[in-house]
User: Fold this.
Amino acid sequence: MKRTFLWKLCLIVATGLVVFFYLLHALTLKTEETMSMIAKADRTELTQWRVKSEQLYMDNNTKALNAWLQQLMSEESTWASVASFRAVHLAGEPIDKDIVGTYHFGRSIEWKIHLYFAANPVMELPFEHSNASLLIKLPSRMRPGTYWATTKFLLQVLIPMAVLAVLSVLLYRHIITPLRKLDSATSAFSQGNFKVRLGRYLGKRNDEFAHLAATFDQMAVRIGELIASQRQLIADLSHELRTPLTRLDIAVESFDVQDAQTHLARIARESGQIRKLVEDALTLAWLENEKPLLKRENVDLVDLLDVLVEDARFEFPSRCIVFDSPTSALVQNSCHRALCPAIENVIRNALRYTPVGKKVQITLTQQAKQYCLRIQDQGPGIPEAFIEKVFEPFFRVDNARHAQSDSFGLGLALAKRHLTSVGACISAHNPGAGGLVVTIMIPITQM
Assistant:
């Protein structure tokens, strides 16, 4: 698993939060700098005071300058003075060295005002036409950063909380949405909707949740197939059992001591059919549902076919069996217990439907990395519409192969399941000359 969701989460949470808090810090500094500047209207008013004081100073009207400064200080509840660059007191209140300093008077109105200092700073507005300046302690109403504490709380607490809350909601929805879909699909599946699938609800996601959805869909397909197969098997088995059971009941009910041997033979025959039907059905269910692990071994197909052909000739002496094969055909990593019953079923099926005196041709050849086993009979063949269905359990074509048979339609189905378990495949077709040809392709080496 590539852990795609983990890397997405790291990208969003780690990288995203680092970038967010970096930008938030930059925004805080920028906001603080902006709020540290004196408002434009206040700077304009301070400049007008400088012009007024400079005008009075240039007129040498010290008395009027003092009066105006006193009025300004009274109205603004502040301190104001006019001084030369040598810190020579000219008018207004005496210079306070602790406020003005030795080498400079105050701050320019274009400078930032520290928001963390309790006292208002002294502002210096130099005169344009003389070596003097208006010194004024910044009035409280002009002090910038009135709402800085609130703004700082908003930037450092409320906004991060809001962003993290939104991020948490998005991550929650990103995680919980597929889980809810999984919960709904599981609930629907438990209620018998075996066609429910989860993958189509996740769109183009390619992460752990998509992998979970694919696993769930595979499980749903597998379990749905198993349940459908079991239901079909039970229905078919119950249907197929009715006929031999009915005949068995009739044989028991009509049992006559005088004709005991005939009735006992009939009962034994029907019992044998029922036993074979149940055994074949259980074997088929085992092969389909359990997917058994077969013991892997090397199998020589020629040796196997020699034994099967010899047994078939003994069982069907009235048919001719022609067997053509190479001297050896070794299949590696296969299973004798799977190949033997499968091939035997096909050969018996061919002989059963071949008329007396006719022949069955069995040919084994090698084609690339596979062995091709071809079994051709001279029976009635199968209608083309039913060629594929003959490998389905309990399927029989009425009157299609004109011969009386005790078969329940499980032979070819069992053969196909056995062959599939070792990687082989089986198919059938009607040749132009009549009869049926069954072809089995067996890989030389089973992986």
User: Anything to note?
Assistant: Residues 399-406 have pLDDT under 50 and may be disordered. Residues 12 and 167 are 9 Å apart (CA to CA). The radius of gyration is 50 Å.
